[in-house]
Hints:
Layout: H1 7-17, E1 21-26, E2 31-34, H2 36-43, H3 47-50, H4 55-65, H5 75-79, E3 91-99, E4 105-116, E5 122-131, H6 133-147, H7 157-167, E6 171-177, H8 180-187, H9 189-204, E7 210-214, E8 217-222, H10 228-242, E9 247-249, E10 252-254, E11 258-263, H11 269-282, E12 287-289, H12 296-315, E13 319-328, E14 333-344, E15 350-351, H13 357-361, H14 366-381, E16 387-392, H15 394-398, H16 400-412, E17 419-424, H17 425-430, H18 432-443, E18 448-454, H19 461-467, E19 471-474, H20 476-479, H21 486-501, E20 505-508, H22 514-523, E21 527-529
Parallel strand pairs: 11-12, 14-16, 16-17, 17-18, 18-19, 19-20, 20-21
Antiparallel strand pairs: 1-2, 1-5, 3-4, 4-5, 6-8, 6-11, 7-8, 9-10, 13-14, 13-21, 14-15
Amino acid sequence: MNESLQPENFLKLISKYLPDMLWAKDLDGNYLYANDCICKNLLMADPKEVIGKNDVFFAKREREKHPENKQWHTFGELCSNSDLIVLDEMKPMIFEEFGNIKGELVYLEVHKAPLHDETGKLIGTIGSGRDITAQVMLKKKNKKLVYYDQLTSLPNRQKILSDILEKTPTACAIFNIDEFKEVNDFFGTTNADKILQEIADWFLKLDFTTYRIDGDEFAILYYEDIPIDKIRHNIENILSLFEEEMFHIEEEHIHIRFSVGIAKEKENLLTKTDIAVHYAKENKIKIAVYEENANIEKKYKQNIAIATSIREALIDNRIVCYYQPIMNLETLKIDKYETLVRMIDKNNEIIPPLDFLNIAKKTKLYSHITKEVIHQACNTFKNSDKSFSINLSIDDIKDSSTVQEIIKTIIKTKTSNRIIFEILESEGIENYDEVVNFITQIKSIGAKIAIDDFGTGYSNFEHILKLNVDYIKIDGSLIKNIDKNEKHRIIVETIVDFAKKVEAKTVAEFVFDENIFNIVKKIGVNFSQGYYTGKPSSSI
């Protein structure tokens, strides 16, 4: 048998070339044996000089070589004494921050066991060590990705949930930036991100651990049992200090404001704080405190339930169209219809739009409803000679996929010359550029435009001229009292006169009895819509 293949030689080769560190020490911590790996990578010594010396010797020697480098740490300084502990079995232990030859920090996984002689007497310890720096650093990096916001470096929503679970804080406050979407849209995401970083830096000056839990939301936790009034006062002071801050975007100076929600609850702390801050934003108040008896949570649960009902109704084809007749006051014939959306619940009850559309607008469901209405109405009227109108919100107009679906459907059903799109006057004026672009695009294929609810609020004749509308629908609040309120009658007469001059047709909404019908007809309104003319129906 080849001498190099003898078992004892195998052990020497394994010990010499194994990437793991191997050693044996006596009861005083002096080396009895050390393989090449530990000598080269940890002790920075020749194997021949290691025997009989301990870790402290090599630690001091390396420190003297590198007095300026504070990163130097050694195996011996951290765990040489633990070698004297008698272990009943092999147990892994991880020691951190060891110095290697480059003066970098490394992590080792260390296994140790007792060493006995032939008689069974304890004479020292044996050990092995493996460099697990890459694994540890990857774990730390992944933890940072999971628990820390990449833009601001603040702990994130996942981290606050973990801290609430482990540390049981007594209260929480969430700061939501008011109208941050507008800042983002106006100045761009790069500048908006810069502001978020500056806000994060400002929060770091406080004596709180601050979390960034959403795009425009920051949170802090309280751990002392402080009365809610004092917490509110503390938040007021924070807001007062923050309002003095000025943020700079190039040469522009802008102020940032917060809406704040506070909750002091033992269960579902973050959820209830979320509810409070949403309540503050919806009601346009600076600070809202969650109160169990205020039924705020119940309201949000109802909203969630309605959103679920809308989603199920879309899947089950229970979003349906009703059509209300519009009478031509010259011919006294029905030649137009307004499309009105309804939802049928699981009990076959009809749910009016006021009960579900606002919630749909706050979810991603609204565009699906619009597309369903477009599809149903266009297919209903594709074989009819009647005109029909469909209400569009500014959200529909700004949604390119909805606009493309509208164009595709009306071309496919050949209804482009009979469809009228109704746009709320206030939305048209507030989003002028988007609306003008939509009107230009839709009229180029033959569709018409109506301004809805004209006569109140923003009413501006100049905008009607610029928008080039085909119909002006006079707001029902003017029509329903026209027989009793002379001022309302004068306003309606003015609108009708203006419409004739710009060659637009007028529609009177809310005509519910014969008296009102006769008055609007006499004034010269072109079309009448209301219960007197005809109620909405699922068929035409």
